[in-house]
């Protein structure tokens, strides 16, 4: 799939011959820098932008778009001067839910998102984080099979983020499929089953989280504490940061200089460090 836009005298390839599969019942995190083309890709997936070429195939019924719930970053999908209940009731009726079924569904979704106590509060009176949860509740009211969430934790405090993450994991345990974009690497690291790293309209990596971390296993950083300075290495208060492939060489140097190694620990390899490394590697 490809999509290009004309920007004055240049052509910007927001999607450059991209191909990928999304696994049912899993959370796929689409990660990239600002301007990478993630929003364009998402809008193509929900038929808001027509790609220049390529096709999108869904396996979620005869009318797939009716089985997709989507939140786009910065897009307003709530009415601020209606109550939480009125918003959900309105969008539920638009989706042709019957009143009895709808009222039960409203309570079910609000309880899951810890919003039941705000049921009759005007959305304008809620915090930004709670407004974000109302936006998600609106998406969930018709119980879609596929959720596409663009920065869903934006504006949420730590507790609300944790609660939302638990809810998303619960949904996948129930068989729902989620595509998630976020700049919060700790959120992606905890939630993702599959990770797509995206830059300048291209996919750099499309792997499982386990495969991604395994590929960087030999590139981790070792912290070494010695009793004296090792010639040829920079330290901070006798603490050295050494790449794994340099470890044996460092130990040999320390032994030759009759220096005692007091402690060796491994620096945790996290998704943020891997992301920064890969984005920088692509620039090079």
From TrEMBL:
Keyword entries, A-Z: ATP-binding, Nucleotide-binding, Transport
Nucleotide-binding recorded as keyword: yes
Coiled coil: none
GO MF entry, a single one: ATP binding
InterPro entries: AAA+_ATPase, ABC_transporter-like_ATP-bd, ABC_transporter_ATP-binding, P-loop_NTPase
Domain ABC transporter: 3-225
Keyword Lyase tagged: no
Pfam families in UniProt: ABC_tran
Family statement: Belongs to the ABC transporter superfamily.
Name listed for the protein in its UniProt record: ABC transporter ATP-binding protein
């Amino acid at each position: 799939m490809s999509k290009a836009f004309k920007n004055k005298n240049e052509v910007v390839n927001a999607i450059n011959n991209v191909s990928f599969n999304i696994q049912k019942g899993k959370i796929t995190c689409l990660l990239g820098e600002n301007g990478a083309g993630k929003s364009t890709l998402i809008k193509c997936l929900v038929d808001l932008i027509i790609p220049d070429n390529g096709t999108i195939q869904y396996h979620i019924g005869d009318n797939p778009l009716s089985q997709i719930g989507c939140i786009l970053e910065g897009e307003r999908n709530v009415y601020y001067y209606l109550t939480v209940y009125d918003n959900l009731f309105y969008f539920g009726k638009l989706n042709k839910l019957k009143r009895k079924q709808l009222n039960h569904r409203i309570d079910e979704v609000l309880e899951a998102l810890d919003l039941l106590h705000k049921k009759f509060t005007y959305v304008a009176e809620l915090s930004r984080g709670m407004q974000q949860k109302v936006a998600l509740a609106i998406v969930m009211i018709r119980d879609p099979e596929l959720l596409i969430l663009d920065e869903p934790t934006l504006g949420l405090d730590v507790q609300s983020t944790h609660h939302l993450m638990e809810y998303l994991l619960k949904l996948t345990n129930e068989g729902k499929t989620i595509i998630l974009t976020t700049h919060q690497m700790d959120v992606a690291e905890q939630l993702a089953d599959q990770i797509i790293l995206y830059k300048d309209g291209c996919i750099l990596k499309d792997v499982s989280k386990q495969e991604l971390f395994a590929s960087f296993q030999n590139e981790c950083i070792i912290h070494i504490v010695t009793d004296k300075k090792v010639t040829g290495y920079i330290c901070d208060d006798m603490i050295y940061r050494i790449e794994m492939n340099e470890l044996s060489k460092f130990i040999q140097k320390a032994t030759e200089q009759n220096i005692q190694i007091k402690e060796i620990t491994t620096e945790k390899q996290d998704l943020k460090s891997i992301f920064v490394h890969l984005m920088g590697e692509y620039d090079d």
